[in-house]
Amino acid sequence: MKVLGIDTSSKAASVAIMEDDKLISEYTINNNKTHSQKLMPIIENMFKLNEMSADDIDLISVCVGPGSFTGLRIGVATSKAIAHVRNIPITIVNSLEALAFNMSMTNKTICPMIDAQKNQVYTCKYSWDKEFLLKIEDIDVKKVDDLAQELKSSLEEFILIGEGVDLHKEVFENIDNVYIAPNAHKSSRASSVCEIGIDKFKKGDTKTHYEVVPYYIRKSQAEVQYEEKMKRLKEDGK
Hints:
- By secondary structure, the protein is α/β, with parallel strands linked by helices.
- 39% of the residues lie in helices and 30% in strands.
- The protein is built from nine helices and ten strands.
- Helix 1 packs across helix 2 (69-86) and helix 3 (95-102) packs across helix 8 (190-202).
């Protein structure tokens, strides 16, 4: 079974192709170009280099969020389009789960962090039980300083991962029981999305292209501003 993995939840765009237990190809670009500029060229080049096409793909595994609102929409829309045309099933993966999977078999509690703006991060906690990644805390939006104090006051050891770490490194780097993941493991990787997706497929946890939607957690800043504007206009009209 060949799986196409897509992750556009962060600044980096990552695409991978995996066949059963073998990673065939992975392509990650972390630059200032938008996901609309990066994603399709990555997919097209990957197919070309591997002498494949979308017709060879049996499953799509896509990261649905939380993360960049625009990035998530592009990644999800691309996955849905490919799946719709070729009637391919989809497995959905959350971005923090995919990041945590990068730190395989560590004995520390994994705390992935994705920027949520306004000095906040999307975060939760995971741990490994032998070969199984277990979620031990639900995804939430936390203030960076509150999260730092929470980790500092714990008796556990934590390893931080994700682009949110780089944005707030100075807050966490001097906490004794907190470790920052190496750069090679810190960013989103579509190969992790593929592996999680394969496991979900084996459990029968798949979606059709109609069912897949981005996982935002909260409203975008644009939506908040629009609602505030409409509220003011309504009040002014009274």
